[in-house]
Amino acid sequence: MNPILILSGKGKTGRRVAAQLDAREVPYRLASRSSEQRFDWYDESTWAPTIAGAETAYLAPPVGPTGLAQAGKFIQQADGLRRLVLLSGRGVGSPGRDFAVYDGQLELENVAKASGLDWTIVQPAWFAQGFSEDFLRYHVLAGEIRLSAGTGAEAWIDTNDVGDVMTTALLDESYVGQTLTISGPRTLTMTEIADELTAATGRPIGYVDLEPEAHVAELIEQGLIQEDADAVRDLFAVIRNHRSEYVSDGVEQVLGRPARDFTDWARETAKTGVWSV
């Protein structure tokens, strides 16, 4: 078979899909700015050479409205591809999910559906690994999770579960034309997350509820551009407004096993030393 193309192959989900394909001895090709065949979402001259020789692709789009728009243009120009598995977000396109933050993601899903490709869309909850592999790790190390999530809850999912679902969707044609919604087995507020991380690390970790615009200001101070900071604020607004307080059973439906619980993930992750200070 032709190699499966993994776009954003060094990201949290792309790395896990690659590991699962390695375990199954399925050929694949990673695409990123540092790959042998350079790929850049914002340099359209890199797109066609990256696609050449691939029939199936896993696409994890860039963050923010501009990145999502570029991913849509990529799909529309993806001559030669036959099959696409797209990473989206839980709640996109659901009735009552009218937050503007979903607009770009919904448009991207619609582009995929109208592309003529055999598509599968995977909509995960927020990644638990955001606290260990992303900017939230620094909050844990500092002992304060400073976000504008209010008292809302989210069904945080282990990204390894996401990678397993993505790999199954890539290899099993029975998921063509389906949208798979996946989450962890229970919802947790940010205060409960802080308590879980306190227990896992043995250090006190608290949650500071920021007003949304104060959150944006802190994100910009940390180096985000205004557009991306606004996008992060709007994503947390979904939690703040109690619109994520439900569990999705897609992991069990696809993999035939329960999704991993946040407590188990936190305890195992703490053993790696990622939160050691």
Structure description:
With about 280 residues, the chain is of the alpha/beta class. Helices cover about 40% and strands about 15% of the residues. The chain contains 11 helices and 10 strands. The chain has helices at about 10-25, 45-50, 65-75, 105-115, 135-140, 160-170, 190-200, 210-220, 225-240, 250-255, 260-270; strands at about 5, 30, 55-60, 85, 120-125, 145, 155, 180, 190, 205-210. Strands 2-1-3-4-5-8 form a 6-stranded parallel β-sheet, with helices on both faces. Strands 6-10 form a two-stranded parallel sheet. Strands 7-9 form a two-stranded antiparallel ribbon. Strand 4 (about 85), helix 4 (about 105-115) and strand 5 form a beta-alpha-beta unit. The longest helix is centred in the C-terminal third of the chain and has 15 residues, at about 225-240. It is globular and about 50 Å long. The chain starts with a strand and ends in a 7-residue tail after the last helix. The mean pLDDT is about 95.
Features:
277 residues, alpha/beta, six-stranded parallel β-sheet, two-stranded parallel sheet, globular
Summarize this, please?
This protein is α/β, with parallel strands linked by helices and 277 residues long. It is 41% helix and 14% strand. The longest helix has 15 residues, at 226-240.
Mean pLDDT: 93
What characteristic shape results from the CA principal axes?
A: globular
Alpha-carbon distance between the two ends: 46 Å
Computed CA radius of gyration, to the nearest angstrom:
18 Å
Strand content: 5-15%
- Assembly type: single chain
Helix-strand makeup class: alpha/beta
- Helix fraction, binned, reads 40-55%
Biggest sheet strand order reads 2-1-3-4-5-8
SSE string, helices as H and strands as E: EHEHEHEHEHEEHEEHEHHHH
The tally of beta strands, per DSSP, is: 10
What is the tally of helical segments?
11
Q: Are there runs of 5+ residues with pLDDT below 50, and where?
A: none
Largest sheet: 6 strands, parallel
